[in-house]
Design goal:
Blueprint (H helix, E strand, L loop, with lengths): L3 H23 L7 H7 L2 H17 L9 H17 L7 H5 L4 H6 L5 H19 L2 H22 L10 H4 L16 H23 L1 E2 L2 E2 L3 H22 L14 H4 L4 H24 L8 H7 L1 H16 L2 H7 L8 H26 L2 H21 L2 H4 L2
Antiparallel strand pairs: 1-2
């Protein structure tokens, strides 16, 4: 069962994620207001929480059984392959050999948001299949979320996990080690996926399972509950976030760096995400049907495609030396007008591709041929591409 509020939340998170990357790359640092940085900081929690929420609805059937594990593992394996592909030294053999460096190879093991989601979901899938009872699973997931958020600041202390095997190292914290800084370690980011699973289990119990042929709650009842829970979470987090680490063993100059790893900070962001999702769901209940495809739902359902596409557009095409120099698009060199124009352009291209791909997918044979052709072209480019510039 798909949830309108979840589709809206995930779709807007994908669109704002594009804005985040455009702003971080091109907007002059001195022009960024604090409110924008705060808003952008809610994108990853939304994305990760939605993944945990969907896990419950896609795993537990209405009759109490569970869907097969193999298709899920294949899907997560494909997402993980895409995640690490984005961190490869290059998509050409020339860059892998002639121009590769040890630092670029170490960057391959950096933990980004997709890796965080996959590893979090694998843990939660294992937990779900051990427990096999959705509401009990939700209780355990909630406990895990609280524990992860509580211990995260300690795991971010200087020196923790330094020198560990690189594929595991970045899962522990975001401290720089051997030149590599992971942006989304499991501590504390796993907490967002686990809490999303809690919400998913509650939604399943009260909105999907029937009681005498009728759901226990209406959709409006659920959205009101989401606002109340989210509001309470935000208020508690905002009241305790600043002083949570005060008086602790952490050095004073570490407190700012550790702010987002604390339980109150996690609660604060989760609360805002829940309230935002509820308001989006409420809007979907009230608005009439608009002509054409719902672009927010397109972004939600094609989130992996848009994630991969916009990163390659920004970092692979627009930041390529020839285009960057010709257009003057140097990093952190643009004002608001130029940044806004690039943001709208890249979002528009991504949504257009998403709509086109949804239409193509209706013809499975054609979509399969396109995918195979793309893989063949990528394989050819891997062998022959990049040699002209690799010699300089």
């Amino acid at each position: 069962m798909r949830c309108d509020w979840l589709d809206q939340l995930r779709g807007w998170a994908v669109i704002l994620m594009i804005e985040v990357h455009v702003v971080n790359v091109w907007l002059n640092v001195g022009l960024r207001p604090r409110w924008l940085n705060f808003l952008n900081g809610l994108v990853a929690p939304s994305f990760i929480m939605c993944a945990g929420y969907s896990l419950v609805l896609s795993t537990f059937k209405l009759d109490g059984t569970m869907r097969p594990l193999v298709p899920t593992v294949k899907r997560l394996g494909f997402i993980l392959l895409c995640a690490y592909a984005l961190h490869m030294p290059s998509f050409t053999l020339a860059e892998w050999t002639v121009r590769s460096t040890s630092v670029r190879w170490r960057e391959f093991f950096q933990i980004d948001v997709l890796q965080c989601i996959v590893f979090s979901l694998l843990i939660l899938h294992g937990l779900a299949r051990i427990i096999r009872r959705p509401m009990v699973y939700a209780a355990v997931a909630l406990i895990l979320a609280l524990i992860v958020a509580l211990v995260s600041p300690d795991l971010w202390r200087p020196g923790v996990a330094d020198g560990w095997w690189l594929p595991v190292r970045g899962l522990i914290n975001g401290n720089t080690d051997r030149g590599i800084t992971s942006l989304f370690p499991l501590f504390p980011w796993f907490a967002f996926a686990a809490f999303g699973s809690v919400l998913g289990a509650i939604y399943r119990h009260y909105r999907i399972l029937s009681n005498s042929g009728k759901a226990r709650w209406s959709e409006l009842h659920w959205l009101v509950t989401l606002v109340i829970v989210g509001g309470m979470s935000y208020l508690w987090g905002s009241l305790h976030a600043k002083e949570w680490l005060s008086g602790s063993v952490f050095p004073a100059n570490d407190l700012g760096r550790l702010y987002n790893t604390t339980l109150p900070s996690v609660a604060e962001r989760l609360g805002l995400v829940c309230v935002a999702g509820a308001l989006m769901g409420w809007f979907e209940l009230l608005r009439g049907r608009w002509m054409g495809p719902n672009l927010i739902v397109v972004a939600s359902r094609e989130s992996l495609l848009l994630y991969m596409l916009h990163l390659n557009l920004i970092f692979g095409l627009l930041l390529a030396d020839p285009l960057r120099r010709r257009m003057g698009w140097e990093c952190n060199s643009l004002g608001w007008l130029g940044t806004l124009g690039l943001t709208l352009l890249i979002i528009g291209v991504n949504l257009a591709v998403g709509v086109a791909w949804q239409r193509l997918r209706k013809d499975e044979a054609l979509a399969g041929r396109i995918q195979k052709s793309a893989l063949v072209m990528l394989a050819i480019w891997f062998v022959v591409g990049g040699w002209s510039t690799a010699c300089y």
